[in-house]
Amino acid sequence: MAVPARQVSSAELDRELGLRTGTTFRQTGVERRFLSTTETAAQLAARACEAALADAGLRWEDIDCLVAASATMDQALPYNAALVHAELGLDHRRTATFDIGASCLSFLAGLDVMSYLVEAGRYRHVMLVSADIATFGLDWTRLKEGGIFGDGAAAVVIRKALPGETGALLSSSMVTLSAGVNHCRIPAGGSRFHPRRVAGPIEPLSLFRMEGKSVFRLVAAELPDFARRLLDQAGTAMDRIAAVVPHQASQLALDHLAKRLGIPDGRLVDIFARYGNQVSASLPTALHLALSEGRVRRGEQLMLIGTGAGLTMGGMVLTY
Amino acid sequence: MAVPARQVSSAELDRELGLRTGTTFRQTGVERRFLSTTETAAQLAARACEAALADAGLRWEDIDCLVAASATMDQALPYNAALVHAELGLDHRRTATFDIGASCLSFLAGLDVMSYLVEAGRYRHVMLVSADIATFGLDWTRLKEGGIFGDGAAAVVIRKALPGETGALLSSSMVTLSAGVNHCRIPAGGSRFHPRRVAGPIEPLSLFRMEGKSVFRLVAAELPDFARRLLDQAGTAMDRIAAVVPHQASQLALDHLAKRLGIPDGRLVDIFARYGNQVSASLPTALHLALSEGRVRRGEQLMLIGTGAGLTMGGMVLTY
């Protein structure tokens, strides 16, 4: 994982915004978050990739595919993976690169999809990286929305399990509820609200907007059944899951998830107070922390789950 | 395939730009191109999907995954496939959706990747759609760059071949030469050149810029060997390929491709004069026209090949 150099506590935000001490933390649930100043998404992604490569004990010549699975673009063109490839100085390596995107669930979609390609032997080692710098597009006067986000990146190396290894993907699913397509959005940045096509200033359209209550209503009705089917398909049950690694959407969303899914005490990986909502980087950062803090042992099962702009629900049950 | 309602001939552009008759065609090689006025990328994509579904004789309940493989974003958030899903009114269908992106080669990357998922039985029928509206970001005073682009969309349905069917993917490859990462680019639209992060006006940064000669130099040295390896891996040779379907980068690029790859006369699918460079929609539109015009018969081989911003080379040899 990688984060920008600058970290900002909620106490600092209180002072900056002229609020009574404790206001920002009470409204956001975030103690500190990391905010990019000069770092680009590709730079954070590259640092996460180098860390994953070292952890895996591999060298770049072992990696034959680099997939960027981020929620937002670094530039409109070229795609994120090409920018990360350039940032890593891999030009002399003849790597395949492409992006896989599904907003906050991009990492899940990428892990799911690429597992089939390593299983089939198409690629030997896939570097999968999620990186988002979403905090430039925030309205800091709307603290509950703006104050929860942080920047970051996280990467994993995927390969086929060797005989005798426990790692396995037991079930995986993704479903789009596009009735909520406008519940979370950044209108500008693409062709629909191009500066040439929009009469007024573009800046207001490049800010993130979320209708939290509408998201909650749509998701609350669906997620418990969705999680149950994931467990059923994996032939397991919630009480056998060592850790549930969710997308870190908000403190409220995490609390509801624990309750609605009946996650046993201490099994939910909640890094929200330490990092905020890091968009696509949330899930792999939480996964990295859960594994490196020893919350899942080899052979134990874990669940990844979340909801992102789309709206899309996604989840996966794995053996570590 | 789908195109916007408005078509613009090079003769019309001559008049609009106050140029001597024939100038635009001579500089671009495009007779007419389709330009979006009110259409969004998701609308064009949805029309292409409906056409592909009808061609395949399927209904939406048969499609369990929708993948958008475009070069540019429709909005910064959510991702393209969710917007297409909403545009198609598929909310009551519980479809998986995500994006696969590799600029102009997004369709190739998507076809390649998703072939493994249908082969493994993860999805039964995948709708894969490419749609780009790039023409808002053009500088029409630079005709050789701006005048070659057109808008459009094209879609295919992918499924596993049944016993006795000839369809097969024989070889596929993708390589990124990120020394050329800045040769084709639209800087703004993402977090790197966010309106909040850039001092000056954002519009100049949201225009497409290409260093054609640098692209050519990098690619000309690499593409012939790349194509030869694709043919070798497929166990075939250029004289056995019924049709070569290239990305329609420019007339010069197409002419050089035919010469450098030794493509026999009449085998190159060149739709450039009729549609221009439709970014990610070029390859599937050319494929659709090649198949619907009867240029490839069942059991014959075809090659898809191209280069896109990244720079990335990609190619595939298939049996139809």
UniProtKB/TrEMBL annotation, chains A, B:
GO terms for biological process: fatty acid biosynthetic process; secondary metabolite biosynthetic process. It comes from the Bacteria. GO terms for molecular function: 3-oxoacyl-[acyl-carrier-protein] synthase activity. Keywords: Acyltransferase, Transferase. Residues 231-319 form the Beta-ketoacyl-[acyl-carrier-protein] synthase III C-terminal domain. InterPro entries: ACP_syn_III_C (IPR013747), ACP_syn_III_N (IPR013751), Thiolase-like (IPR016039). The keyword Nucleotide-binding does not apply. Residues 98-174 form the Beta-ketoacyl-[acyl-carrier-protein] synthase III N-terminal domain. This is 3-oxoacyl-ACP synthase. It comes from Pseudoduganella dura.
